[in-house]
């Protein structure tokens, strides 16, 4: 008889099995769970070489599986100068000043936005000076280095800020013409102040996350991200996810080639410590260039058809598409007109005409490629699911786990269609936290109350996976937000009690269900015999403490296949 490598005992093990069993102990051998049960029974399996870890009553959950994480984007934010917590222009300048001290003269300094959502919506009023910093402020600390502070990607308008050196290099003057959706702020003399407003999504003011952007406006000369930078960004994001208890991700939004290379390199080096399933990005222009689109479909089908290609650490599968624009900026495609970010009524943005989009999806289906579509607004969900129904009549998709993403405003009919076709839906209640003011202004309280309707999705029998969308990326926060449904600016509570779900349901949405989206539910997502020992040990029992205290919980240890990828002392050296 062989003995387990590790035994965790005297804990509360939330297994997320079919019965939501809560056990006391778990035994791990060769990266897999070999027994789950009482402390007495599991300790009896231990041998002389077994590591025994006394949990001292701590809670253990399956490692979180983020159904839409943007791990690369999270990492990018760690690499760039950030202004977290600033409350004055002087504090903004302190960040830039420190960066100048580490750079060569003339080297570009590209910074994160001054503020991210939901804090952004209180700016610039929360700054002591009551205004945005401008070119002259930045010039004081960076006269020689061009500085560009990026606009927030999911805010309309996003505020970009440049100093005089950057403006001079770009050749921007009082007479510079701007593309649609971009505004140059000017002073009383008509001169640019260095403050720029970008209402677009995706933003066309440049950022270093330039791998999926179109033509850059005003500052095209800003150095794009190179492969080394992307590699470092993905690795930084991965380590942050280790600390957060995330052991696997399903990135359905579509991964461009630089990110693919970064993940693959980590995997080849044996350094990938977050299981990653991602679909390949299908660029929107390819819908109107059938030859290019077909070439990508043919290439992707060689290695990512069916359930995908790879192993338990890295898997490529299918193609990812975007149909409409972002709800966060009031631009999703809705069924009825609403007032968008720029103050006039419309129904939102559709990126690709129906006929071209349907043709592109048909081509993917014929190649046996799984399809994932970002469709946020109700009008977009209606159209996309109608296309799925049309394709299904010719090429059955049941069992292929086609997916829709974001899908904030589904109807009862949409849910029935998803169940009938076996469509997986991934969404996040983080939208309500980050963009509550946008929701209430654009869609009103009644419609917003039923946005991201987790209770309705569950009751309809649809495989729904919760995610973070990378903002904030902490799954413990998102677990709480699944229950609380609060706005981060107004504190408004959306849709309770009728959209209330239980903690057991919230945990399942972020573990087993998200694993199902990646065809990994037989390997991860619950703590059961025969599955990989991916788990998180917590400082607080999130299943029993007061709901408002859940965001205070921390991850003490994260195990991937039974090995610590994050530990603050429980496992020692």
Automatic annotation (TrEMBL):
Protein name: Amidohydrolase 3 domain-containing protein
Domain called Amidohydrolase: residue spans: 53-566
GO molecular function, one term: hydrolase activity, acting on carbon-nitrogen (but not peptide) bonds
CDD domains the UniProt entry points to: YtcJ_like
InterPro entries: Amidohydro_3, Metal-dep_hydrolase_composite, Metal_Hydrolase, YtcJ-like
Top-level taxon in the UniProt lineage: Bacteria
